[in-house]
Amino acid sequence: MLRTNLIRAITNPKSRTLATTAVVSQGRTKRPTATRRTDPPLPPPSLDVTPISQPVFVSLTTSFTGNQDVTKDNVVALDPTVFNHPIRRDILHLCVTHYRDSLRQGSANTKTRGEVRGSGRKIRPQKGSGRARLGDAQSPMLRGGGVAFGPKPRDFSTKLPRKVIQMGMRVALSSKVKDQRFGIMMEMDWPNAKTKYLVQKIKALGLKQTLFITGEREIPVGLQRAIRNIPLVDITTSEKVNVYELLKWRRIMLDGKAVDFFEQTLGKKSYLSFPVEHVTSTSVSLP
Q: What is stated as this protein's family in its record (predicted)?
C-alpha cells in the first residue's frame, strides 16, 4: 500500500498527501419506527350532568297571606355554588369598605389664603418694629386668615372588580344560611295596606329584625305601604340589595323569584339548577 502511494505521488505531483483515498460509507439502514400505542377514544359526554356537590336544603316559611299550606317537610334545594360558598372574611371586608366609601359625601371645603376676602397689603414693615415678620392679613397664622392644607371637595368612592362583588354576595348569602338566619317564602304579597295586621303577622311568624328581599322589579305597593312604618323591618329587591345590607340585618327572607335571580346571576354555569317551584313539592328530611 505504501509503495502504491509513493508511485501515485511521483506520477502525480499535485497530490500532496500519502493518505489512502477515503471510502464513502453508505450509512446505516434506518430501522422502521415502531407504531405508538394509542388509547381508545373516550365516549362522548353524557347529557345527564350531575352536580359535583350536593344542593343546600332550606325549609319553607309560611307567606304573609298564608295561602299555601307549608309544613316542616317542605324544603327548597338551593345551588351550593351560591348558598354554600366558603366563608371569605377578606372579601366581605373589601365589599363593605367599597360600599361605605361610596356613601361618603365628600363636600367638606375650606378657603386657602388666596380665597379669603381681604387686601394683600403688608401689615407692618419688615424691619424696625422688633416684632415678628408678617405678610398680608390672609396668612394661616392669623385669626380670620386662610386654612393651610384644609379639606377640599373630593370623591371618596373606590373601585372594586365585578367578580369580587359577586363573590361577596355569595359569601354573604352562604354565611346567613350557615348561621340559620336565612328563610324562603314562595311569594311576598300583602293585599291589605294596613300596618297593624302586618305587624301581627310578622310577630306571629317571628320575623322581627328581618330584611325581606323580593325578586320583583318593584316592591308590591300594598306591602311597601304597610311595612315602611314598622321598625326593625325593611324590604328591598334582589337587584338593589348589596353585601352591606345582607350583613347588617340579623335575618334575611327571600321569595322564590329572588332565589332564581341569585342563582342565575351568581351561580356557576356548570351546576345543574332548577327553578324553585319545581322542587317545592319534594319532601326531604333535613338532618
A: Belongs to the universal ribosomal protein uL4 family.
Strands (E), the chain: 56-59, 75-78, 182-185, 210-214, 233-237, 251-255
d(CA 265, CA 250): 24
Same domain, 220 and 139: no
Amino acid identity of residue 104, one-letter, is: R
Tell whether 221 and 94 lie within a shared domain. Answer: yes
User: Based on the number of CB atoms within 10 Å of its own CB, is 134 exposed (0-12), middle (13-18) or buried (19 or more)?
Assistant: middle
> Which residues, listed in sequence order, are joined to residue 60 by a DSSP beta bridge?
184
Residues 229 and 145 in one domain: no
* 179 shares its domain with 212: yes
Separation in Å, CA 107 to CA 70, 102, 128, 151: 52, 13, 45, 9
Closest CA to 258 of 220, 217, 210: 217
Q: How far is CA 31 from the centre of its chain?
A: 61
Per-residue pLDDT of the chain (287 residues; tens, 9 = 90+): 555 665 665 666 555 555 555 555 555 666 666 566 666 776 665 555 444 567 888 888 877 776 555 555 688 889 999 999 999 999 999 999 999 999 999 999 999 999 999 999 999 999 999 999 999 999 999 999 999 999 999 999 999 999 999 999 999 999 999 999 999 988 888 877 788 888 998 998 888 999 999 999 999 888 888 898 899 999 999 999 999 999 999 999 999 999 999 999 999 875 555 555 544 444 333 33
> 162-178 vs 89-103: helix axis angle to the nearest 10?
120
Query: Are 233 and 248 in contact, with CB atoms under 8 Å apart?
Result: no
Give 107's contacts (C-beta < 8 A, 6+ positions apart). 153
179's grid cell: 348561621
Note the pTM of the prediction, 2 decimals. Answer: 0.71
